């Protein structure tokens, strides 16, 4: 692959699920090579995902290049050396209130922290949900008590039927307003974050840290939790299979990460 080289420092941010990684937890060989080639040309690479850092590390190892990590939709920004550069957690009272809204019949709420992903009951439906994670989903039966005692919560991921999730989203937004940030992150999953915590804010923090402006930053994603990242970057790309609303919010569309990278770098 030949990509036009540029002397300007650049930043490329990629979502993982549905973008860099397919539903079978595979990454295309052409995408791996495109990321490696961009890194060889001096492009800074960052992965921006709803996943926790331990999961993102597995993808970084597969890519074979150093990457910054925006974890759990911006709850943590992790440097190339694995040190946390920026971190946000729920206040205990807000986390307890949100948990009560997500603990409904028919839904599978997953409580996420930097240490792991937890459910109160590892029942068959929760086990099925757990298969999408790259680290084991763990049972923690006294979650409410643990949260009250100071368990650090980064986000809630809630899975179920779309109508039930949409209704839950409406109730959450009506009750909490700007105290939370909530959106679909999977076709059957919603992420609920503390207010003003999202991939876009983390991307802006990373740009400031690196001294790279939005004009020299590109990002790619496929879901509603990527929209804030689209707004933060001058060159935003939606995967071609994204929902129509997501495609409309991006400046460009592409079938693969490799194609998005090539087209962006060839513009210079």
Describe this structure in words.
With 268 residues, this protein is an alpha/beta fold. It has two domains: 147 residues, Rossmann fold, CATH 3.40.50; 103 residues, Hypothetical Protein, Haloacid Dehalogenase-like Hydrolase, Chain: A, domain 2. The chain has ten helices and 14 strands. The strands form two sheets. The chain has an eight-stranded mixed β-sheet with strand order 5-4-3-2-1-12-13-14, sandwiched between helices. A six-stranded mixed β-sheet has the order 8-7-6-9-11-10. Strand 10 and strand 11 form a beta hairpin. The N terminus is likely disordered. It comes from Paenibacillus glycinis. It holds the Pfam family Hydrolase_3. GO terms for molecular function: hydrolase activity. Keywords: Hydrolase. This is HAD-IIB family hydrolase.
């Amino acid at each position: 692959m030949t990509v036009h080289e540029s002397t300007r420092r650049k930043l490329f941010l990629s979502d993982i699920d549905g973008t860099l990684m397919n539903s079978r937890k595979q990454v295309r060989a052409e995408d791996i090579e495109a990321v490696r080639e961009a890194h060889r040309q001096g492009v800074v690479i960052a992965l921006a995902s709803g996943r926790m850092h331990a999961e993102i590390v597995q993808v970084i190892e597969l890519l074979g290049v150093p990457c910054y990590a925006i974890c759990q939709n911006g709850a943590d920004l992790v440097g190339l050396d694995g040190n946390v550069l920026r971190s946000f957690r729920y206040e205990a009272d807000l986390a307890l209130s949100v948990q009560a809204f997500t603990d409904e019949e028919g839904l599978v709420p997953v409580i996420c922290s930097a240490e792991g992903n937890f459910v109160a009951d590892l029942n068959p439906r929760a086990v099925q949900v757990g298969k999408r994670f790259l680290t084991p989903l763990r049972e923690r039966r006294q979650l409410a008590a643990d949260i009250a005692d100071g368990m650090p919560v980064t986000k809630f991921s809630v899975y179920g039927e779309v109508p039930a999730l949409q209704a839950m989203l409406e109730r959450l937004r009506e009750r909490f307003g700007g105290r939370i940030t909530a959106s679909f992150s999977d076709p059957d999953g919603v992420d609920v974050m503390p207010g003003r915590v999202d991939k876009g804010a983390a991307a802006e923090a990373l740009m400031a840290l690196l001294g790279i402006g939005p004009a020299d930053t590109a990002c790619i994603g496929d879901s509603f939790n990527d929209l804030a990242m689209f707004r933060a970057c001058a060159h935003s790309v939606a995967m071609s299979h994204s929902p129509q609303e997501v495609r409309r919010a991006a400046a460009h569309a592409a079938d693969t990460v490799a194609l998005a990278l090539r087209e962006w770098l060839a513009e210079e």
